[in-house]
Amino acid sequence: MKPLILTRTGRHIDLLHFCAEDIDIQDIAHALACCNRFAGQCHRPMSVAQHSVYVSRLCQKKFALQGLLHDASETYLGDLLKWLKALPELKAYRTIECNIQRTIFHHFHCPLTLHASVKHADRLMVYFEGEQGFGRFAWENWLLSLPSHYYHELSARERKRIGPKTWWSWQEAEEIFLAEFRKLYD
After folding, report:
1. Could you tell me the residue range of the domain that residue 64 belongs to?
2. I want to staple 3 with a disulfide (CB 3.0 to 4.6 A). Which of 15, 31, 39, 113 is the partner?
3. DSSP secondary structure string, 9-75?
4. What is the pLDDT of residues 9-35, one digit of tens each?
5. The pairing of beta strand 12-14 with beta strand 4-6
6. For residue 75, what is the domain's CATH number?
7. Which SS3 state, helix, strand or coil, does residue 149 take?
8. Measured in Å, how far apart are the chain's first and last C-alpha atoms?
9. For residues 162 and 54, is the Cβ–Cβ distance under 8 A?
């Protein structure tokens, strides 16, 4: 049995043979808008599309498109918790994810390796989303269970850059993601 997926736009994709022809920004925006962070376990879920828009707003402007698309492979694979994905047993999954992500970056003319500012913005968003989704006390206590603490709270300036509204519906997330993409890709 092949690992196949049918996308919203009707594409039949073999995940082991992913290519540029498989990519449609409409599929990416829709899937990420319907996929929630932290496996949907927050009191109030935040979509991967909203997360991606925030990352693009926080990283260096030159890498904003890469920030917007940094989790685009989740369009085809879903959002797997980073702490689970890091396990040695999931090496094959990480290889598939890397191939898909690199194909997407190449297709949209982004650097193939994540820029440091995108990585930093992604970590900032983990803290922000966890705090917003679980409550500050619960989130900070959970963070203490991690072996290294490299998630940091957003500054007032960074909070201003992501915008005033914290929660978007999946429809809003899809529309805003597409608008950000058009602004950055044109």
Report:
1. 4-185
2. 15
3. T--EEEGGG--GGG--HHHHHHHHHHSBGGGG-SSS--BHHHHHHHHHHHS-GGGHHHHHHTTTTHH
4. 999 999 999 999 999 999 999 999 999
5. antiparallel
6. 1.10.3210.10
7. coil
8. 39
9. yes
